[in-house]
């Protein structure tokens, strides 16, 4: 057994936690704050050609004006599926059809809708925290394996602390991102 087998790949753990943060940022980008943005439809998946596909892979997403998003669906047979995916996405937008173009008028946010969006943001943040904790658990499992391979108690403790520090940093970043997003949503 070489010493390298007893190393824990912190870079890999950090990369995976970064992935959870990136995913959270894209989910937050999809939460509308009263202004139209193409990113708000990014997380919406459409069943196209037998698989779940992002909207921007079945049509062109545009923002022709501050309170309107349009999706020009390339394949006429998918228009209904795209419309249905938007309706069921929880974006709270009523799509309007105009041939192969789906128009999404962005209504002003009322207080109730803002509160609802802050709850959605909190759910997204919780999913990210769970993802980070899962990566942490993987790291701790690696330490257990290394223990049976002969890692010393001191090394186990050091690695555990490193992984916990990394986890705490990411959880803290998630909490800050959530706080900022909720503040942004509640601004009138």
TrEMBL record:
Q: What is its main location?
A: cytoplasm
- Which GO terms are recorded in the biological process aspect for this UniProt protein? cytoplasmic translational termination
Cellular component GO terms, alphabetical: cytosol
A GO molecular function annotation here is: ribosomal large subunit binding
Localization (cell) = Cytoplasm
Q: Which residues cross the membrane?
A: none
Decide whether keyword Phosphoprotein is in the record: no
Q: Which Pfam families match?
A: RRF
> Could you tell me the keywords of this UniProt record?
Cytoplasm, Protein biosynthesis
Q: Which residues form the Ribosome recycling factor domain?
A: 25-186
The family annotation for this protein states: Belongs to the RRF family.
Do you know which PANTHER family this protein is assigned to?
A: MITOCHONDRIAL RIBOSOME RECYCLING FACTOR PSEUDO 1, RIBOSOME RECYCLING FACTOR
Q: Which NCBIfam families match?
A: frr
What is the recorded function of this protein according to its Swiss-Prot or TrEMBL entry? Responsible for the release of ribosomes from messenger RNA at the termination of protein biosynthesis. May increase the efficiency of translation by recycling ribosomes from one round of translation to another.
The entry's protein name is: Ribosome-recycling factor
Species name: Rhabdonatronobacter sediminivivens
The beginning of the lineage is: Bacteria, Pseudomonadati, Pseudomonadota, Alphaproteobacteria, Rhodobacterales
Which gene name does the record give?
frr
